[in-house]
Write a structure and sequence with these properties.
The chain is mainly alpha-helical. It has 15 helices and two strands. It has helices at 3-27, 36-51, 67-74, 105-111, 119-140, 144-160, 171-188, 193-211, 222-235, 238-254, 256-266, 286-293, 296-314, 318-338, 349-378, and strands spanning 91-92, 97-98. It has a two-stranded antiparallel sheet with strand order 1-2. Strand 1 (91-92) and strand 2 (97-98) form a beta hairpin. The longest helix is centred in the C-terminal third of the chain and has 30 residues, at 349-378.
Length: 379
């Protein structure tokens, strides 16, 4: 066994140990940890369990079995007895009812697991998924630098599946989507024409589906829209047009559950169910900016930006296109979240991880191509 194979094997075993540690940690989590968001996501899951797909209607009047009241009482919420004062349930004048502000996807995924034991299996599944993609990247690396990069990335990605991913149930499924889309995005730039159409359709569909987990995930599509629009403007080709069209249609198709939920709960597919604080117009806030600057999210963002710049300078071909797409995506998301009036420890984690997964697989492809050149020359 060569040194590279041994190192790869040891890193794979290391990934497995981190995964086991994460699962051991997650197994001891409680679904009653005093977080309002948790109860609200679990209430959506409860509605799906009770009413099937009709559970997409989150009218607080459906709390006739006191599920929401009991959950709020259990965490000591002072006004637990009045569901109209429940957190994350704003009043929507257009429909005259109090509804859950979150899109239905996270609650739906939670509802797939047994009541009372939903968060733990969701996070275990998410951790196993990230482990699988980290392992795939590790075995895809073909030379020492790539192998080291994949190893460091894998350990970091698994660590992030506990902190800050545990901050919101919506982050776990989002992290899974980011890993898949990162791989597909890198593959898109090395694929043939017909494969590219299929890949960009899958990418659009998956990002659209991620919107059902958390609404701001719609901004994950921004860089793709800008890149595809620019590609068509420059090439004016049938392929470029079809790729942009396929992405757009797939994206909207993926977020259809949220559009339906908005129509039912807010009176229109394009209306928001979020309260006034989350729906404020963009505005720079020094406190929010400082909070990001000292948070791990900003460190990941800075790494993404530096890595993107390196990829831009490293290659004159497809790597530049990857860099353009990632840079556009980072810029749009950065502008949105830095002007949003609320800071959380996970808001920009999705764009960080989508960018980093994309850059990882694109870099592995680039270095694999370069390492193959000397062998071809010798042949």
């Amino acid at each position: 066994m060569g040194k590279l194979q041994l190192f790869r094997l040891l890193c794979g075993l290391g990934f497995l140990l981190v995964l086991a540690s994460n699962v051991w940690n997650i197994a001891r989590w409680s679904e009653s940890r005093g977080v309002y968001d948790d109860i609200c996501y679990l209430r959506q899951a409860h509605l799906f369990e009770r009413f099937g797909l009709r559970g997409i209607d989150t009218n607080v009047a459906f709390d006739d079995d006191d599920y929401l009241k009991n959950g709020l009482k259990a965490i000591g919420y002072a006004e637990w007895h009045d569901v109209k004062r429940a957190p994350c349930h704003p009043f929507i004048p257009a429909v005259g009812k109090y509804v859950l502000q979150y899109p239905p996807g996270t609650g739906f995924v939670l509802s797939l697991f047994p009541a009372g034991f939903q968060a733990v299996p969701l996070y275990v599944l998410a951790n196993v998924t990230i482990f699988a993609f980290a392992l795939f990247a590790l075995f895809r690396a073909r030379e020492p630098a790539s192998l080291t990069l994949a190893a460091v990335f894998g350990f970091a990605a698994l660590y992030l599946m506990i902190n800050p991913s545990k901050a919101s149930y919506s982050v776990a499924p989002t992290m899974m989507v980011c890993s898949v889309v990162g791989l597909l995005t890198a593959a898109f730039f090395v694929a043939r024409s017909r494969q590219r159409l299929l890949l960009i359709t899958l990418i659009g569909l998956l990002i659209g589906l991620s919107v059902n987990f958390r609404l701001p995930n719609m901004f994950l599509a921004a860089g793709y829209c800008l890149y595809l629009a620019g590609a068509f403007a420059m090439a004016r080709s049938k392929d470029a047009f079809l790729q942009g069209l396929a992405f757009g249609v797939a994206f909207v198709t993926g977020m259809t559950p949220t559009l339906i939920a908005n129509a039912i709960n807010a009176g229109s597919p394009l209306a928001t169910t979020y309260g006034s604080v989350d729906a404020l117009p963009p505005e720079l806030n020094a406190t929010v900016l400082l909070s990001y600057l000292v948070d791990v999210q900003f460190t990941l963002l800075a790494i993404s930006a530096i890595w993107t710049a390196w990829l831009w300078r490293a290659d004159q071909g497809r790597a530049k296109h990857v860099a353009i797409l990632v840079a556009a995506n980072l810029a749009v998301n950065l502008i949105f979240f830095m002007t949003h009036p609320i800071f959380t420890p996970y808001y920009i984690i999705p764009i960080d991880m989508l960018s980093l997964w994309t850059l990882l697989f694109a870099t592995l492809d680039l270095r694999a191509d370069r390492s193959a050149l000397p062998r071809q020359a010798k042949a």
